[in-house]
Amino acid sequence: MKLLLTIFSLCWGVLIYAQNVNIPDANFKNALLAHGYNILGYNINIIDTNGDGEIQVSEAQTYSGIINVNSRNITSLIGIEAFTSLTELHCYSNQLSSLDLGSNTALEKLYCSDNQLGNLSLVGNTALYLLDCSNNQLSNLELSHNTALVSLYCSNNLLDSLDLSNNLVLYTLICGNNLFSDLDLSSNTLLYILDCTNNQLGYLDVSNNAALAVFNCSNNQLSSLNVGNNIALGELRCNNNSLNSLDLSNNANLYWLICTDNQLVSLNVKNGTNSQLVVFDARNNPNLSCIEVDDSTYSTNHWTNVDAIASFSTACPVLSTRAVQENLEAVEVFPNPTTKNIWVDLGKKYNNIRLQLRNAMGQLVMTKNYTGMEEVNIDLEGASGLYFLSLETEEGIASIKVVKE
């Protein structure tokens, strides 16, 4: 009886050792069989080590290298679960619609872009630190178990939310061309590269991301952007938003700025290191007439990608399209913009009125005094551009931005 049990155990062990992995996709199986190469008698990434035209379970379990099956017209990776020691998988540019790698617990890198993935399960992949799943059809991406994740590329999907609260060591996030209206990055304090272009973001808080150095938030719906805490910021692309002001005075490492196609009326790049700013483009901001800089002569000579109305100054006046008042009743200016004259409606008569007009460089253009007036007509004789009108009466002051076309 003992002998029979021993023989049975040996046979069962041989059967398990010789069991083949079920790989129903012929293209995937052929790619695995042809995988690797032999150099001087050494097998490099060869999976079918015995050359029998099958992948045994033992061959799959002992294989710990990289599997590369890119661009093989594969529709299913069933069988990949047998490769429990696999550390890196390249399967991009196939026709995969679903991928479950929960059994591949040693996996560290996954490249599965350019497929048709609607489902991607990575629950068991706690060692994963690089994921490229871009150019798919993912509407959900669960990453709460992937706490080692350092680099995430998930652009060109259908994602409208992304929970990164457990991904505390995330360094690179490329998530453009999705459907995000909100993106919470408060837990990702090590984030260094962020590209969230072409989404629907109306608000984005990067105040906790002090390490952020490369930032692209272009083509969104941002009306404000605060990068005051991002002291490492070197490259900023925030074009094609709805920004009306941008303060970069705290970003001394900035070397690249593209803020075109916004609604900027205020841009401050006076950070003490303007000479290292090699790319500067602020075009298509029709209301941006004064850009605050370190040295207006240097900026004028080196930064030409600005609108005709724009000029550089070391001290731009406070910009407002409405009156800024101190105890002075509402003041209206019309027409504004104007081609020549403006009317200033003070709202009531004042005994003493002092008027000063300055150009965008802060130079005094006109000073006038009036008595007992409610409306004042001013002839803007100077060149086209932005002017700043200061009014002072016995009840207070007002500052008004005036545009001459």
UniProtKB/TrEMBL annotation:
Residues 333-399 form the Secretion system C-terminal sorting domain. InterPro entries: CDIRP (IPR052574), LRR_dom_sf (IPR032675), Secre_tail (IPR026444). It comes from Aureispira anguillae. This is T9SS type A sorting domain-containing protein. Pfam families: Por_Secre_tail. Signal peptide: none annotated. GO terms for molecular function: signaling adaptor activity. Keywords: Leucine-rich repeat, Repeat.
